[in-house]
Amino acid sequence: MTLHEDYLRDGYVIHPRPVIPDDLARRAKDGMDDVLAGRYETGIPPQPSYWNPGDDPNKQGKVEMPQLANSAIMELVSHPAIGRLAAQVTGAKRVQVWWVQLLSKPPVSTESGSGVSVGWHQDRQYWKTWKEGSELFTAWVAVSDVSADTGPMAFVQGSHKWGLLNQGGFYDDDIEVQREQITLPPGETWCEEEAIMPPGGVSFHHCLTFHGSRPNRSGAPRRSFAIHMRTENSCPVAPSEGTLAQFIHNTDYCPVVYNAGGPDSPPLG
Length: 269
Prior knowledge:
alpha+beta, 5 helices, seven-stranded antiparallel beta sheet
């Protein structure tokens, strides 16, 4: 089967080999450290975020639009290899980045014995800024080794076919209890697959695919970037100012990473 067929069947694709060069993955990881420390190489801060410099280090590190603050992160976000692979996976003719999140999952605290989980959720429940039917997906790029003990992201196979259930939530702490509270459509089953990958590896998931992750027990942070993307078949609800789509007309911030039609193709909506 092709990557596109896998994506249509499962709602996600996990690429088994690095897509981003080792050197760039290392530089983006260093850039992540700078952003988390409040050092903004470009002089431009990220967008208002869940996590800010000085916050509890045992809290999920989640920073919005970090590529504004660091050139290595921007280089990773705009890397053409991600765009080409995204097009293979989704069947898109054009792919644009429209939002990015830095994600640093801390290891389980030695003091409390507790760790950070990411609750089961569908991205689309948070993305009201896009019109119904818009083709939206995420490239999740690892810049550290993501093994089973790091609390890797897990996808629920075929859940993108269930429609928007409006159940679950990113910030729910007890992922096991939360799972029992999610009501599946009749005849459907819950089957998970973890995204195990090396630095530079990438997974792609549909905006309706349920996903989440368990605590990181590796002893070191699990580091990644969630690069939210759209195809040519997408359009924001107008106006987009003040929403997650506010930068889509600024390709310095939200680059077009794949364009089968060439530079003269019509702009995205």
